[in-house]
Amino acid sequence: MEATAATPEAVPLWKRIGFRLIARKPLEVILQEGSKTQMRRVLGRLDLIAVGIGAIIGTGIFVLTGVAAAENAGPAVIISFIIAGVVSGLSAFSYSELASMVPISGSAYTYTYATMGEFMAWIIGWDLILEYLVGAATVAVGWSAYIVSFFKDVFGVEFTKKTTQAPVLWDNDELAFKVNHGAYINIPAIFIALLMTCLLVFGIRQSSWINQTVVCIKLVVVLLFIFGACKYVDRDNYHPFVPPREGNSYGAKGVFKGTQRVFFAYIGFDAVSTAAQEAKDPQKDLPWGICGSLTICTVLYIAVSTVLCGIISYKELNVASPLTFALEFHDNTRWLRILIELGAICGLSSVILILLMGQPRILFTMARDGMFPKIFGRLHHRFKTPYVPTILAGTVCAVLAGVLPVDILGDMTSVGTLLAFILVNIGVIIMRYTHPDAERGFRVPLGRFLIPVPGALIALVILVLSDGPTIYRLFIWLAVGIIVYVLYGYRHSRVGNPERWSEEDLEYFQDAGIMNTEENIPAANEKEHAGGSTIDSDKSSVDQDQMHKVQPVGMPEAHHYTSQDINGSGHDAGFGGDDIMPQQMPSTPKQAHY
């Protein structure tokens, strides 16, 4: 019986939507994008470790340690850091494997696109936008507190709260916002966010050497605090180590809430993977950057929290600059306070730099996939940086830092981080099944389950134990993201929307080997007229080994549906998850166009 050609409209709507939601971006396409990058590959192994340390050591030590101890865990914040470090370590293994396989800017978004499909990739991409944007604003607020403290200790100048604090506060007991009387806007926080944005627009090379210098400075300062303040430790301050529960604070649950809060401190190694397209040898150097920076910073976090809770009662630490505040209760510490303030100012500056570097690159990658308007995927003609998303991210970050308190911003960043950890760990398991033979510069040890499964489950438990308002805010943000996806991303996606492909898109996917080339289309049409399917694995001249390597988009082909395709006698067009096998790519692919 002769097979009749079908158009995309002949496919039931529910099937088309289903394909769109689970359409995966082929690993080959992702790798091709990385090989064609226009960004400058200038970051080596030490650069990437410095990027990670620059993002990790910052607000976690200089700001959130005190808040988590005072409001959540007491001295047991040490345990909170250990738990967060263990979960982050498990996830770091997963990040390292995926980063060595998919060394492309976009981080967890790119990994999810290759493993779970377009819709989940959008969700995690939208989540990462929140994580990096709100994270940078959190750090900017902490930077403001230390610069104010520095001017007071060195010059005797005291700024009024009108221009250095947010106009609202968060009440942890009542779980509600309150007016911060006398405060209008945090101008120093706005200033540093805009300054770092300008620096990033001028290029990664200029900001890279600045970041390395700043990382060295703050490492020295952190060590100075550990060894300079340890002589003031009073063991009585550790009792009770786990304070009895009081309202929404302390107790065993308080330890886990503290863990959720300090998770913000570990997002730096994720920022390493967003710089993949600027790395000289991403498959080898990204795992070093991720695991190396996380290991160094976890040890320092545990040491700082141990000393901090030992030199002052945890109940006094609910301030934005806990390290210098704690030292004020001890004699002959003025010189140490000034050095720590300088280190905090430099250190937090580098964190803002890294976070504002990562967020635009996620927008950049999503725009290249059609999820956002093309303007977000443009590089500056001179500096080769994604200047449009960088300017937008910096501006929004400045606004958030100027009007919101540090605990609200920090909590939102932490839950975003946890969600990313969950999906990345799941992604490793999926990639072990779908691409078992793909080249990996690093493999998660102990098999496909022993590390990723606990990493995902523990992160999920901590996420569920977060405060209700924080979870509600995350859901609201994700709901807004789904609306944006339906209104724009779903309609303009390059991978999942073949009927809207332009000539450049056609060439792009032909180069990747996931669509018929002009040379093969006539032959396919001859098959169709002869009664055969255009997708016929028995008669195709495609080399089977090459077909095995090519991961198609998971979407029915744009122009050559047949009755076999629609009815399921050939390749099923339903939700079964079987990918439509493409025709062979040309022997000499052209360069992909964007």
From TrEMBL:
Pfam family, one: AA_permease_2
InterPro entries the record matches: AA/rel_permease1
Claim: Ubl conjugation is one of the keywords in the record: no
Membrane topology: Multi-pass membrane protein
Transmembrane regions: 48-70, 76-96, 108-126, 132-151, 183-204, 210-230, 290-314, 334-358, 387-406, 412-434, 446-465, 471-490
Chain residue ranges for the region called Disordered: 568-594
Biased composition, class Polar residues, residue ranges: 584-594
Compartment(s): Membrane
Keyword annotations of the record: Membrane, Transmembrane, Transmembrane helix, Transport
Chief subcellular location: membrane
GO cellular component assignments: membrane
Keyword Transmembrane helix: yes
Classification via PANTHER family: CATIONIC AMINO ACID TRANSPORTER 4, INNER MEMBRANE TRANSPORTER YGJI-RELATED
Protein name, UniProt field: Amino acid transporter
Native source species: Coemansia guatemalensis
